[in-house]
Amino acid sequence: MSTTMHDVAKLAGVSIKTVSNVVNGYPYIRDTTRDRVLAAIKELDYQMNVSARNLRSGRTGMICLAVPELSLPYFAELADSVIRAAEDAGLTVLIEQTGADRDRELEVLSGKRKHLTDGLIFSPLELGPEDRSAFDVDFPVVLLGERIFGSGHDHVTMHNVEASRAATAHLVGLGRRRIALIGAHEGEQVGSARLRTEGYLMALEDAGIESDPDLIGESGLWHRANGAEAMRRMLDSGTEIDAVFALNDALALGALHTLHERRIAVPDQIAVIGFDDIDEARYAAPPLSTVSPGREEIARTAVRLLGEQIENRRSPRPPVEVVARYEIVVRESTTGAAR
Question: 195 vs 60, which has greater pLDDT?
Fold first, then answer.
């Protein structure tokens, strides 16, 4: 027979109401009383009825993380970081994969699954400033990424421009002058590709290097295969190259694959740096230099901000924007020796 709250109250010498207050984190309880109740809970191995507690509080104890696709290593590792941060906060994560599809991203905001979760951490790829009205929702939301600004929700992002400028400057500092960029999205007005390209161009200007349109390689989704193909096109064009800045690590790994195919030495002939610092980067051949954009900070900040919104729905605060700190991680794909 399972232990009940009545059993805990009897062992601790308190009322059932006091046990309930301890379990639910009620602050105005004497420390000695709380300690007795917690000791009784431990001794009896009491498991509280989470479903009943959530029903009373109007919460589910679950949050939703909506990302474009888990096949992209950055989002898979971001999901892992969010799950661990949520566990520390006593929350469970439901993951929604939108496939970077506009209709599915709008569906995430429609509230159809609102009854399943207490709030949403959302990284849209296809929605933009023209979709701001879709974000007028009545549940807690934290936005990630670069697509939506001024939505009225908390926003956690990264230093896309500054970090890309620093990554390119790292290559320039190594004496590279013909630096190719892989992953550009022609015509993009809002998004990571535009911002990272902007940082790349700023670093060239800082160094007095004239930008060359032939060194900017377009790609679709930032997958390894697209990075490999963009690198092939660049090499086949005959454009002189001595370094590559890939706009994410998956593209960089694809570029490395092509360079190995063509028997081009990295970094002696062409140095390569990526962006995201995914786990695979350190095990590439050679280990990949990259930008660490603060993924753990992004995950923990997003969970914290969402938790604040859930706890204070009756007295909401103004939305905040947090920009995570970045770091240039130097490995052998640019220096030729471990650093």
Answer: 195
Q: Model confidence over 125-176: pLDDT tens digits?
A: 888 778 888 888 889 999 998 866 666 889 999 999 999 999 999 999 999 9
> Is the alpha carbon torsion for 134, 139, 140, 144 positive or negative?
negative
Query: Do 130 and 149 form a contact (C-beta atoms < 8 A)?
Result: no
Structure tokens given for 197: 């390209």
Residue 27: the pLDDT is 59
Contacts of 211 (CB under 8 A, 6+ apart): 201, 204, 205
Average pLDDT over residues 27-52: 77
Instruction: Please tell me the pTM assigned to this model.
Output: 0.80
The whole-number pLDDT of residue 339 equals 46
For 189-216, the three-class secondary structure string (H helix, E strand, C coil) is CCCHHHHHHHHHHHHHHHCCCCCCHHHE
Instruction: Determine contact, residues 316/301, Cβ cutoff 8 Å.
Output: no
N- to C-terminal Cα separation, the chain: 60
**What 3-state DSSP class applies to 257?**
helix
Long-range contacts of 302-305 (CB under 8 A, 24+ apart): 302/82, 302/85, 302/121, 302/142, 302/144, 302/154, 302/156, 303/63, 303/82, 303/85, 303/86, 303/89, 303/91, 303/121, 304/85, 304/89, 305/142, 305/154, 305/156
Whether the CB-CB separation of 236 and 209 falls below 8 Å is answered with no
Mean pLDDT score, 17-29: 73
Torsion angle, CA of 175/177/183/186, rounded to 10 degrees? Answer: 150
Would you call 50 helix, strand, or coil by DSSP? helix
- State both tokens at 160: 């896309």
- In terms of Cα–Cα distance, which of 256, 254, 250 is closest to 228? 254
pLDDT at 299: 95
User: CA-CA distance, 23 to 41, in Å (whole number)?
Assistant: 9
Token code pair at residue 284:
């590439």
- The radius of gyration of the chain's CA atoms, rounded to the nearest angstrom, is 25
The Cα 201–Cα 161 span in angstroms is: 10
